[in-house]
Specification:
The chain is of the alpha/beta class and about 300 residues long. It has 9 helices and 14 strands. The strands form 4 sheets. A 5-stranded mixed sheet has the order 4-3-5-14-6, covered by helices on one side. Helix 1 crosses helix 2.
Length: about 300
């Protein structure tokens, strides 16, 4: 007795409103469909369908059974898809979202290496500092930095970054090096307009006390790389993630300030829509990124990190 065939026949009859159309969709005879549904009703000892000369519709019990039968059929099809996907090699197109500076400085080099390894995969990388709607906008995966708010998405942690305070040697020679949080009030503080804290920096002292420092500099910008270049040019002090300025600090273009401040780590995650099974191309890409960033020095973040 093929119970799966009975379920499939019953669901198709309900979906198509009759035996004739269901048989046509399934590519079998009308009598075969009728026999399967009758066998199902006999086994359950219940009438699932109301049959008239004009139409076929589910009974109250039939409708409840139909709802559960759909889930069962989906589970079976998902299981089949899992087996197929596990045997398939990564192929197809990936649409990837990433913040502008992280994409240019770090993700691009990783993507290039990935494409070299997986010749049947194409990547459409969209660099934008806004949070895209993955499903609505057709993205397979997004790189997000900091707190993850959307619980409907799955995530894999790739690395960590931290905020830091930096300025150029030239600026510090002209205006002095701040020694305490209070000293910052007399300095030109460069403002990154994407910060959710508006015109304030939230800084944590070594004791764990959180202090707010009002930003009163002459420059406001919505791009981290531009903020870094302003700091290198001597325009002021920047409050900026290490993944943007780590290399500049390492090369001596910028100096880290107030080393006793505590900056909590911010996760760098690959997020993707939830689902039972992940396509091989997406699984391969995320696994590759996890491995790629595994050995990154997150306090220095060299450009093109490997």
């Amino acid at each position: 007795m093929d119970r799966f065939a009975e379920l499939e026949a019953f669901v198709n009859v309900v979906d198509n409103g009759g035996f004739t159309e269901a048989a046509r969709k399934m590519g079998v005879s009308k009598s075969a469909i009728s026999k399967s549904v009758s066998a199902l009703e006999a086994r359950l000892a219940v009438r699932l369908l109301n049959r008239t000369t004009r139409r076929v519709s589910p009974t109250e019990v039939g409708l409840a059974y139909y709802d559960r039968a759909i889930d069962v059929l989906k589970d079976v099809n998902d299981a089949d898809s899992l087996v197929t996907s596990m045997q398939a090699s990564p192929r197809g197109s990936l649409k990837v979202s990433a913040p502008v500076n992280f994409g240019i400085g770090h993700l691009s080099s990783a993507a290039a290496r990935f494409l070299t390894r997986y010749e049947d995969v194409d990547i459409n990388m969209v660099l934008d500092d806004r949070f895209v709607e993955l499903v609505a906008e057709g993205f397979d995966v997004a790189i997000r930095i900091g707190t993850l708010d959307d619980s409907s998405l799955k995530a894999r942690k790739l690395a960590e970054t931290r905020m830091t305070l930096v300025a150029s040697e030239g600026y510090l020679k002209r205006f002095g090096t701040p020694k305490t949080l209070e000293d910052l009030s007399s300095h030109n503080l460069l403002h990154y307009s994407h910060l959710s804290s508006s015109n304030y920096w939230k800084l944590k002292s070594q004791s764990g006390e959180v202090r707010q420092v009002r930003v009163g500099g002459r420059l406001t910008v919505n791009n981290g790389a531009s903020l870094k270049m302003a700091a290198i040019a001597g325009l002021g002090i920047a409050h900026i993630p290490t993944f943007i300025v780590g290399c500049s600090v390492e090369q001596g273009d910028l100096v880290r300030l107030l080393p006793d401040l505590r900056f909590d780590p911010m996760g760098v995650h690959a997020v993707y829509p939830s689902g039972r099974f992940m396509q091989p191309k997406l699984r391969a890409f995320i696994d590759f990124l996890v491995e790629h960033f595994r050995t990154v020095d997150t306090d220095n973040w060299p450009i093109g990190a490997t």
